[in-house]
Hints:
Four copies of one chain form a homotetramer.
Chain A: H1 2-16, E1 20-26, E2 32-38, E3 48-56, H2 59-66, E4 82-89, E5 101-104, H3 114-117, E6 142-145, E7 152-154, H4 161-165, H5 170-180, E8 189-193, H6 197-206, E9 213-218, H7 221-229, E10 234-237, H8 243-250, E11 256-261, H9 266-274, E12 276-284, E13 292-294, H10 296-299, E14 305-307, H11 316-324, E15 334-339, H12 343-351, H13 353-356, E16 360-364
Parallel strand pairs in A: 8-9, 8-11, 9-10, 11-12, 12-14, 15-16
Antiparallel strand pairs in A: 1-2, 3-4, 3-6, 3-16, 4-5, 5-7
Helix pairs in contact in A: 5-6
Amino acid sequence: MKESVALLERVTxxxxxxxxxxxxxxxxxxxxxxxxxxxxxVGSPTDAVVRxxxxxxxxxxxxxxxxxxxxxxDGRILGHEGVGIVEEVGAAVASVRKGDKVLISCxxxxxxxxxxxxxxxxHCRNGGWILGHTIDGTQAEYVRVPHAETSLYPxxxxxxxxxxxxxxxxxxxxxxxxxxxxxxxxxxxxAIVGAGPIGLAALMTAQFYSPAEIVxxxxxxxxxxxxxxxxxxxxxxxxxxxxxxxVLDLTGGAGVDVAIEAVGIPAxxxxxxxxxxxxxxLANVGVHGKPVQLRLEKLWAHxxxxxxxxVDTAATPMLLKMVTSGRLEPKKxxxxxxxxGEVMKAYDTFGKAxxxxxxxxxxxxx
Amino acid sequence: MKESVALLERVTxxxxxxxxxxxxxxxxxxxxxxxxxxxxxVGSPTDAVVRxxxxxxxxxxxxxxxxxxxxxxDGRILGHEGVGIVEEVGAAVASVRKGDKVLISCxxxxxxxxxxxxxxxxHCRNGGWILGHTIDGTQAEYVRVPHAETSLYPxxxxxxxxxxxxxxxxxxxxxxxxxxxxxxxxxxxxAIVGAGPIGLAALMTAQFYSPAEIVxxxxxxxxxxxxxxxxxxxxxxxxxxxxxxxVLDLTGGAGVDVAIEAVGIPAxxxxxxxxxxxxxxLANVGVHGKPVQLRLEKLWAHxxxxxxxxVDTAATPMLLKMVTSGRLEPKKxxxxxxxxGEVMKAYDTFGKAxxxxxxxxxxxxx
Amino acid sequence: MKESVALLERVTxxxxxxxxxxxxxxxxxxxxxxxxxxxxxVGSPTDAVVRxxxxxxxxxxxxxxxxxxxxxxDGRILGHEGVGIVEEVGAAVASVRKGDKVLISCxxxxxxxxxxxxxxxxHCRNGGWILGHTIDGTQAEYVRVPHAETSLYPxxxxxxxxxxxxxxxxxxxxxxxxxxxxxxxxxxxxAIVGAGPIGLAALMTAQFYSPAEIVxxxxxxxxxxxxxxxxxxxxxxxxxxxxxxxVLDLTGGAGVDVAIEAVGIPAxxxxxxxxxxxxxxLANVGVHGKPVQLRLEKLWAHxxxxxxxxVDTAATPMLLKMVTSGRLEPKKxxxxxxxxGEVMKAYDTFGKAxxxxxxxxxxxxx
Amino acid sequence: MKESVALLERVTxxxxxxxxxxxxxxxxxxxxxxxxxxxxxVGSPTDAVVRxxxxxxxxxxxxxxxxxxxxxxDGRILGHEGVGIVEEVGAAVASVRKGDKVLISCxxxxxxxxxxxxxxxxHCRNGGWILGHTIDGTQAEYVRVPHAETSLYPxxxxxxxxxxxxxxxxxxxxxxxxxxxxxxxxxxxxAIVGAGPIGLAALMTAQFYSPAEIVxxxxxxxxxxxxxxxxxxxxxxxxxxxxxxxVLDLTGGAGVDVAIEAVGIPAxxxxxxxxxxxxxxLANVGVHGKPVQLRLEKLWAHxxxxxxxxVDTAATPMLLKMVTSGRLEPKKxxxxxxxxGEVMKAYDTFGKAxxxxxxxxxxxxx
Lengths: 366, 366, 366, 366
């Protein structure tokens, strides 16, 4: 009986959902618009619809806009990061309820397939990175989130939304792909190549494991200075092409225990593979568009480990605890704030990150 | 003072060593000779001198002879594999005694440096791969083994020398670099590219972990048939350039959990990186002379792990137990037998391995 | 629209479900009956109803019957093992369909709670061991399985039901609690105390990791002989109270690397803690009704690890692969077969396991 | 022959050692004296003799004095912690030289036996905890250290001896036995039972892994206040026998992820086993003189891991890096300082630790 009521209710909601909302829509390379779209509704018993209260823009959104991600098609609402209030849930959703404040994970996970059962949510056979990619995303007034129980995280009362929205993607990415895969240990020497938001997320979370040194490498002196305030113990400018020599000098020729690639181009991968100590770990975080040359003629005997990973967001519950307990302060990444309605302007700013000294730009509803 | 006594003693010993022995000596690219060399003596308190009773030839010896390993200089006695009888030990050697039958590890390990303390003997600061490389080796009547207590393994009475000499290098290499680094688990699908002695050693030892499938890939049909008798469950000829498609077909498009590279050229590495399932492990065993192209534009989001390793021989005690208990039969790798004095002929045979259907050739004293 | 049809259908099914079925019902200590019970129906969108084709009896069922498990109340249908055909699924169940042949896991797992996300399904906040415990079980013609997508495993066509039903509980229990927790490694010496079905399941699956020796210890010579046919390399009767001395003798005084407790009483735990080598692992599998004395005055400096575990059945997909590929033959555990309608007689036989030389008794629907 | 030369030399050296030194000597239960003893000399090629510059007293020394450690016999010089200057080394010692300032590990390790090769130095077949136990120790002007290259750690110039001497035993013990074995992870809740020096060492090093909470439990309010300054986030007095209830209250009934036992009596072990969350780790650090009752009737299904360990000091190189880089400040443990010649008085103070508010007492050579 309960279910037949739910069904009726659903029908009603669908009608009222004839109403529209505003959203940031991709219309092919270089073209984006803040325009009217139908407001999403629950389509499957495991869905939830969330009203966005805070969102942000990711470097990946810029790649999409350049046309680098052909799986994103004309008409797609962008965005895979967000915090919001649950508006409606499907009949099979129990652990999340209407009115809950939730964190939206950039990775949608069914919780049931073989990959999910192994904690490899990024490769979920019924999800993965789909928001703002193959289904509509979070840079909008509302978003439909499939597999809501395993893709949303209820937030504690009073949680700081700006801090929490950093846990949608950037913090778990830096932590899982960089720090966990790099197996950072107490006493280690760690180098992070790339002091952008992802590199800084790796820098913040590498400190969970108390490495002895964290060397930050970037072309941009401003970003390096920011890295110092986030806990880097050594700064190296790679502007002169001598980053490798400098790292080797710093380590007495030994190289580092962990090198984290947080840029996504051959040159930065090459720095990483050239500064690894025997037994070292190279954790790739960057999104690469081209192959790289792997120097196996040197590395074959070097006992190294190279890892890649699309973030699984399996670490999100732990990161939530760390923010709540005050041990992690991801809000420090926020440099600019806009109203959600100003998202076009927010993109302009974020698109000129170096000039604007932008790290993460916040989009706030009302 | 102590040191001057030690010095005197050493001089005396060296005199008595005026006696000579026969050895296989490298004289630059393409040139080798079976000739007289001074018989080695104990030079440091931690040395042992071993009379070789069984030795063998490694693919690496052929590389050296081609001039591919410039750190090997004219006059060097080759060989890094062997079983023999201890002739003499230094004053600080207690766990190995004159008359003991011992296995000589291809990796000399001091047991004291930071790398040794981590089990990374291959990078020992006072050893590593030095036999038949930077110091004289085992294709001789006698060999001096530094750091004897941590580089020799006493053999049980009645041990089969032909089986045991396979533990000097080839079995630990296949196991540590391929199987352990590849993290083979029960139920896994494993592909091994290269059915030479090292690939077969990986095949034998992968079975310690009960994978569901072991696919063997090689150009040579004869070697593939041999692989079947060693436990391969599927055979794939790569002669037509379609190995990748065949593996994907076999696995329903999923790819394999573990790919072991046991050749050392870009083409075989490329097969490995193309057949990995998400979350898969690529364990490089092959000795590479050139860089390879790593397809990061595909693999960055694939959650893969790529490892390299120079064998540490840390697994040797376990492998000894497995041979002794009859669970591992490395003797099956032996296809040809020669007297030590026929080593020149043995090289001829081993150098034409495909034609001669040679896997490992045994060199026996008397 | 599809959904409203589904709803109608469900209502119809519920009506027809007024029909009854036969089931083995617990009526307080010592009292069981094969009697009529209402046939179960889908009660939540994530439920499935399965028609049982093969079931079996567990040692735990005997404990329940003795009154040892007070959380089982009068009127409960017993049984937590089974294979069957899906009759009906809830609206949110997609990966399992009507007509599928499935394995029923003894552990029901929601796939969504914090414990499930860590793979600790045994402690699922919405499931765990509930079948035949806090909800009705599988010794019946039909059973309702909550959280069907994460608690049922579709079986390959032609799968042997008798082999597969061993994967409901006993094989994952022996493997996860004994072998995985015991960290069995190639070359290890392993002792298993208790050669009943669970001990034999540990014995079968310990061989996935190629230990050098597996010593089986039991009071019953018949069971020890069975253990030999399952792969035990050494047999020790504990009937004379000298099991500890015998194990120490066998291992040259060293003790074993892994001791698996598969009985559940202080005496057998005590054997295990007394035969551990320094650095050894004691994996408790047995269900204990009393505390044990832990000899910390000896063990504090012994570098040992002691583990407990209620089976999570996280290994079930791997075990399914191993059975399908022929590397695991759990059917060997089956000693007796009965019709489901003869379950009262089957209990009589299983209740006198030693006398009847019974391991697992199969219950088959006609 | 070599050996007879070595012997002669030894005799000569021993003669010159006719010179005496002062040492703290055990003369049976309750009896200790600061008296003349022969100055030790190099007896084996792998020995070193170290002149003590800083030492300290361990709780274990008090146990010995009470007669609790029967393997310590009349006439033994006590002490297994120290920093000093190398006076003389054996012929096989190369990595440590006369004049080096070194840290003496409480665990002597040969580096060659099977246990040492696994990093389990505590069970070294030619060493282990022998200093101040089965051979003469460090509460003396000089000490002979066997296996010097693998039992001494050269210190960086300018190293603070008081900080460094904490690395002889107490810091590696708290870290290895408590933190490493307890598998402390970012976000964990950790409870440490016992706020003495060892418990505080665990507290300091647990923070390497950024747990969310560290609850300190002790009877003594003064020690709890000290724990707060070392980083404890919650303090619980166990004086009222209600520690278990309080921990469960603090964790919302869930229990803790890691419980570290740092006392060594049944009551404190019992607290630990009663506050473990499912999946939790109980790391025993305390030295126990009696068995404890293990509540397997509850824990068998609780998926817990219990570990014991005699410190291996395998973590010493990492801890040295952490002190040198300023991330670890073990000097905070020092509450009292004495001249080495005042060691009798130092024992009096340390023996009344609670009253004197003593943690570690330093013994300095003039």
